[in-house]
Amino acid sequence: MRAIEIPESSRYHVFTKGRCLGNPGRGAFGIVFLNDVEEKVAAYNEVVGRGTNNAVEYLALIRALELLGNQGGGRDVLCSVNSQLVVRQLNGVYQVRGGELVNLKHSLRVAEGALGDVRYEEASRGNEWIECARFFAGAALDGNLIS
Fold first, then answer.
1. 135 and 30 in contact (C-beta within 8 Å)?
2. For residue 29, what is the domain's CATH number?
3. Which end of the chain, N or C, is more open, meaning fewer C-beta atoms within 10 Å of its C-beta?
């Protein structure tokens, strides 16, 4: 995990987007961090190797929470995700039935522990910040990491 500077804020709004070339396939994700007045304060992207779309969506959320936790915990976070399945699993509407997603959900819950209230909502693909995160994921797949 690369270190990034995320300016201090009382709460954050995080937009994540995972992408795979194939499903499963080579995956990457992008993250956009907004502060408490909804200004973009940081962005991050990463290539994660081979995975499914849903697994990469989980990995994006885990990394977002880890990066915020590394800045000092206790902050509230709203995570907007472009995956109905992942959001519904995290909000308890759907069960995670086994396999890799069970372990990823556990890792995500551990990452939540360093923060305050963490909530998840679904965001449509047309959302400007989801599109920005999608762009960063594509850039990572092309070998262009945000520095």
1. yes
2. 3.30.420.10
3. C
Cα distance between residue 147 and residue 141, in whole Å: 15
65 within some domain:
yes
Examine residue 6 and state whether it is found in any structural domain, yes or no. Answer: no
Domain contains 66: yes
24 DSSP assignment: T
Helix (H) or strand (E) holding 105: helix 100-112
Q: How many domains does the chain have?
A: 1
Mean pLDDT computed over 120-124: 96
Task: List pLDDT tens digits, range 31-57.
Answer: 999 999 999 999 999 999 999 999 999
Nearest CA to 60 out of 9, 8, 20 is that of 20
pTM of this prediction exceeds 0.90? yes
73, pLDDT greater than 80 = no
3-state secondary structure of 102: helix
* 57 close to 18: Cβ distance less than 8 angstroms: yes
